[in-house]
Every structure is written in structure tokens, then in C-alpha cells.
Amino acid sequence: MAQEAKELEARIEELREERSKFQEKVEGHLKEARTAAADELIEKAEQELQSELMNRLNAAVSNGNEELATKLLDGLKSYYSGKIKPGAKTDSSEPPSVSPAIAAKKSTSKPQEPKPQPPSQRPTAEKKAPPPPPSSSKPSGKIIERRTMLNDSLNEICRYEYSDGQLTKMIFLDSEGNPLRTHQMVYDKDGNLEKEIHVDQAGRTLQVLERETSKSGKIVKEIIKNADDELLNSVEFDYDNQGRLNKKEWFDAKAKRTKVWEYEYEKSNKDPLRIIWRDERNKPYGQVELKYDEKGNITKEISKDRTGDVIRSINYHYFYG
């Protein structure tokens, strides 16, 4: 028994040495792989991350998941503010230890405490001022820019482009003026908006929104597909006897209803006073109260949960050309 114990102990020691050598070899290979990593691979990972975030954000907005949409929007803000900036270069000769796509995932491990630096060596991040609104040499009275304020801070900028009086493009920028995505409008021969193509800053299609209209030109259905022409969800529109939007119902790819928006009006007013959210079982989920300017454009959205507590407040500022 004593001899067997010694042999077992010796074997364990051999295995430990083998494991140590193997670990050193693996670390060596990883270091070589990181050093040899090509910029295009890193860029591809960043593009995949950006596309995935945008797809998830669009799906969350379409499905009325306010909480998830807000979190994803915050993630995109971080992405474009420089925390995970596409194609970012470093002055260090050392290559990145992980791909940006992996680094973007929320870590469950405890972060290391940064070493304190003297005041003179501490980096100071200067946030760029928002770009000025565009000017128009031929005023038309149309909206040329909308600025979205979330919690009193500039959250997003949307610029409008027109051709022959029709809206052709909506360009979305972050608070510093960096491009996020673009919505391209496609019209039928009668001038009805037939399709919206949503693309990212690199021109890649994120999703396509197709519209069906009635003879009077009202939207009766929207069909949302991904870049591969696969159905994501659809939205059906219902109107009251005054021609005002009465209800919107969302359905998933399997035609199962996922949520409902009901619009409430004040007497004969054409602009809705509030929107009531209902879940797939038609139970109240929350509401959005709306305020308008003299031109009928929404200036404020106050979202409340089913108990009446405010979830968030969004303000819109418009610039006209």
C-alpha cells in the first residue's frame, strides 16, 4: 500500500508539471494569436456587435419592450461615445487582449480596482458639443431636425431630407453628431409611402418596414422583415368613424398577438391625448401621455406604468427649414 501511495503521489506530481507546461504553451499561443490579429477581424467583430445591438433595439421597440429598449439604447450610446468605438486605434504597441465583441459583453466577474494616478496624469474626457442644426436657404416650413431629450439630456438627433416635397430620408445621430442609422423612404407611383429601409452607418440593411395602405391613403398594415427578408412582426391599424387612428395591434412571425396600443382623443381633436398599452391578453400594461406644439408635432411623451408611476419622460425639439 505504501508503495502504491508513493507511485500515485509521483504520478500526481507529473500531471501537475504537465499541466503547468501545457498552460504555458497555451498562453504562448494565445499571445501569438493576439499579436497576429488583423485589424479587419477586429473591425468585423465591432460591426457584428453594432448590427446585433441595432437589431435587438429595433425588435424591442417594435414589441413595445420599453425597459429593454432603454437598456439597449444606453448600450448604443456607450458604443458611439467611445467606450466601444468602431475602428478605434490605440497608441500602445500591444494588441487588444480580447475582441471588441467580447469586451462589450457584460462581465459577471468583479472588476479590478484602477491604480490611483496623480491629478496631473489623470485623463480628462471632453464631451463634444452637439452639432448646430442645419440651415435652409429655401424655407419650406417642414421639419429639418428633431432633437430627443431624455432626462433633460440630449439623447438623439434626427435630420430630415426631402425631395419634391416628400420625405426621403431620416438620418439619426448621437448627441455628438456621429451617425447611428438611416431610414430611407420608398414611395409608390401614387406618392404613398410604401416602404422604409433601415440601414446602419456602413450601409448594411438592419430591417425593412413595408406598408399597405387603403384607397384613402391610410396605413392599414406594416410588415417588418430583417435583412434576410424573414418576417419579424407585423402591425395592423384600425380607425374610428372620424378617420382617426383608433388601435394598433402587433403580431409576431407566427401571427400571435403580442401587444395593443389604443388611442384616446379629446372630443373632436385629431391628435391623440394618450396611448393605452395592453399586453397579449389585452390587459392594461401602461400608458403614454402626449403633448403637442401649434403645428401638431409631439413635443413631450410621458410614459407611465399600470400603477400610474412615471417610467420616463421624453421631450422633442424641432427645427424648421
Automatic annotation (TrEMBL):
It comes from the Bacteria. Keywords: Coiled coil. Residues 5-32 form a coiled coil. The keyword Coiled coil applies. Residues 80-145 are annotated as: Disordered. This is RHS repeat protein. The lineage of its organism: Bacteria, Bacteria division WOR-3.
